[in-house]
Amino acid sequence: MITLTIEDKQIEHIFLDEFHSNKEKFFEFIKLSFDGFKNQSLDEDLSYLEDEIQKGLDSGKSGKKHREVFSQLREKYGIH
Asked: Among residues 2, 14, 56, 58, which one has the fewest Cβ atoms lying within 10 Å of its Cβ?
């Protein structure tokens, strides 16, 4: 048995409104999402994305610095 305490308002909204408080469906979604995540290559080198973002920043079309862009992406997707 598990007791679930949701302190994140966005996750709470998803659980209550999108899954209609159905714990079984919510946990099945988490399980399937995790299984998909496990199947991704954890060794995949994504450094090329950093280079592409730097090219875009160097183009002069963005006033943001490289660090600002990554900071916003981390914040948006909950990566710390």
From this structure: 2
